[in-house]
Design brief:
5-stranded mixed sheet; 14 helices; 3 domains; 7 strands; alpha/beta; flat; Nucleotidyltransferase, domain 5
Length: 355
């Protein structure tokens, strides 16, 4: 509800905007109100103060009586019912030929009397915070996952382990095994660290994954501890908390030469994935990188390449300015790359509203 002072301020702001040449409808839209609402506020017949809090409303005919409410409170606190939810209490009473109110009414009465709490010896459910990380250079945040590749017969699969860099989208390590295990994952992480230490020095590193058993195995966690890597995991049963790893698997399996009928053996699978990784890192123009290759972004070649593109477009516009109605194409990249950026923005907006 909008207070009287806010209404007066809105009327004044809209008046100033219209006097400056703005359309009244557009000004109302900027404030989030309709033109009809503005007309009602201006009317002398309409009280300036909102009358809804002062309205006297009739008591709903279906409202529980005071006696029924007290009976519900008394029943749910009886020894045989105090550990049961209303979804079980109401059917038990129905079997005894007793009906007081619906299950939703029971829940409403419990909440009103502060009786709706977690009961039992199990832990109360709690929400896990969203795993969001920011990378400003290569080898700050890695993401990894496992996907299956079809084998020579139905029901036979090979398992592709793959580690991806958040900042550059480069595949920093991969391998294929016959099973999923934390031991295989720990070997892959060690191999990735050795490989990247030779090319780009490692920063304080975060390794993000989902909640599969290989990601939480003791051998992998011990390896991360020894290497000084911080593990990060998605929320349980939330498939899109690791979007970049899921996306690269789709890119892999939608390649034109992907053998959807199945790989003949482990050697053929590794050979095909090796070619895919070379193509992805060194040839694939990634749309999320403004059509640079992951290798160019990972090795710091991105700024010079993008600057060269910008100058080329500026020269083209200078030769034929009549062909350009706006600025040249934006050949730039954000310095910060976030994991789950939409959620970060949403949380910031909600915090601002609450404050």
């Amino acid at each position: 509800m909008i207070s009287a002072s806010d209404r007066e301020k809105a009327i004044m702001l809209i008046k100033e905007a219209t006097q400056a040449g703005a359309r009244e409808t557009k000004a109302c839209n900027e404030l989030g109100i309709s033109r009809r609402t503005l007309q009602r506020w201006r009317s002398e017949a309409t009280p300036l103060e909102d009358q809804r809090p002062l309205a006297k409303r009739p008591i709903p005919r279906n409202k529980l009586t005071q006696g029924e409410t007290e009976e519900i409170v008394s029943i749910v606190n009886q020894p045989e019912f105090r550990s049961l939810p209303p979804s079980q209490i109401v059917p038990i009473l129905a079997d005894r030929g007793v009906y007081i109110a619906s299950e939703s009414s029971f829940y409403r009465v419990l909440r009103h009397h502060n009786l709706q709490h977690h009961r039992g010896r199990s832990k109360a459910p709690m929400s896990k915070p969203i795993s969001s990380h920011c990378a400003t250079s290569p080898n700050q945040v890695w993401m990894w996952d496992i996907t299956w590749l079809p084998g020579p017969a139905r029901g036979i699969y090979f398992y592709l382990y793959l580690i991806l860099d958040l900042f550059s989208r480069k595949i920093v390590a991969w391998d294929i095994w016959l099973e999923e295990s934390a031991e295989n994952a720990s070997q892959l992480v060690r191999r990735a660290v050795l490989s990247e230490q030779r090319s780009v020095p490692l920063k304080p590193l975060i390794l993000h994954s989902d909640n599969g058993s290989p990601m939480k195995g003791a051998s992998l966690l011990e390896t991360l501890y020894q290497l000084g890597i911080t593990p990060s995991r998605s929320r349980p049963r939330v498939s899109n908390d690791n979007p970049y790893a899921e996306s690269i698997f789709k890119t892999c399996k939608y390649r034109p030469n992907y053998p959807s009928a199945g790989f003949a053996d482990l050697t053929q699978a590794r050979t095909w994935v090796l070619d895919f990784v070379r193509w992805y890192n060194h040839e694939h123009r990634h749309s999320g990188l403004n059509f640079l290759t992951p290798h160019q972004r990972h090795t710091g070649m991105d700024q010079s390449i993008l600057e060269k593109r910008r100058k080329l477009y500026e020269e083209a516009r200078a030769i034929h300015p009549e062909r350009w109605s706006r600025d040249v194409r934006n050949w730039s990249l954000e310095h910060e790359v976030w994991l789950n950026p939409e959620r970060i923005k949403t949380e910031n907006i909600e915090e601002k509203k609450s404050s």
